[in-house]
Design a protein that fits this description.
- This protein is an all-alpha fold and 98 residues long.
- The chain is built from two helices and no strands.
- The termini are far apart.
Length: 98
């Protein structure tokens, strides 16, 4: 609820369940039932999360870690999308398309 990416950001009444949030697919399964599950998305190989950064880092470190994670995640998603498009374009036409 502390991020503009949250489905419930600035929502005082009738909050949506966290399960409706696209970020839930990034939350480790064992943390999905936590009160604020998105705070447990791992940002790097050392396992830093927003939850751990809130406890042990300053604002600059939090922003830097989150920015790096966002850049890497966006790049990975773009590469996956490009690979999927390429794979789809190489598939032979189906019987219905012939």
């Amino acid at each position: 609820m502390d991020s503009v990416t949250c489905v419930n950001y600035d929502s005082k009444e009738n909050p949506s369940p966290c399960s409706d949030c696209v970020l839930m697919q990034l939350v480790p399964p064992e943390r999905r039932s936590d009160k604020i599950p998105c705070r447990h998305i791992p940002f790097n190989l050392s396992g830093e999360t927003l939850d751990s950064l809130y406890r042990y880092s300053n604002q600059h470190e939090i922003e830097e870690t989150l920015e790096n994670w966002l850049r890497i995640t966006i790049q990975r998603l773009e590469e996956e999308r490009a690979a999927a498009r390429l794979a789809h374009s190489k598939q032979p036409p189906s019987a219905a398309e012939r």
